Input
Amino acid sequence: MRVVRVAALVVLLAVAVVGCGPSGEDSTTGVGTAAVETAAAPEADCEATPRQTEGPFYFDIGEIRREITEGKPGTPLLVALRFVAAGSCEPIRDVFVDIWHTDAAGQYSGYPGQGDDRADTSGETFLRGRQVTDAEGRVEFETIYPGWYPGRTVHIHFRAFTSEGRLIASQLYFPDEVSDAVFESEPYSGRGPRGTRNTNGSVGRDDADQQALMGQLTSNGDGYVVSLTVGVVR
Output
């Protein structure tokens, strides 16, 4: 796969998602280093990221952690989120950020009665984690590409909050062509074709919202990096 060029990714993300962002030359340095370098000079007029339902599958595992797979198999995925103030694009530091998503079989941890076989994952905490934004408003999570389940297109939930309350709850989406490629490999391929795509999901059908929440993906070794800048109204 192609080497990740993170600086170019951040520039594309700023233009496509929030209409603002730093300029800079391509870099092949590490994700964290390149991200900090390109985030040094934000411009104005970042748009507010659309809010979407938190859904029924959230719970607080009470643990700060970057690596959240707990051994679940799947295509490696680095989730890189950046939180900025809508309007000014100033980074927001010291924000708690939770993410949660399904495994390759389309099941969330911590809940009974999922899927056709009514799987019970009660007491489990896989693919859930919390990080705190740094001075540039960034968090990263090491996980796997999420699986699908009936009625929903591929997505990751995220929730950001401070001690004063919740800032935003929303969802991150994936280009269908990337999901199609991932789902051709194990352990995803054993489930057969999915029936729900970005165009017919039960949440996020608004085209503008869907585009604003579409992650920017680049290949990274045997997996992917997905990035999203989140504009928050405080």
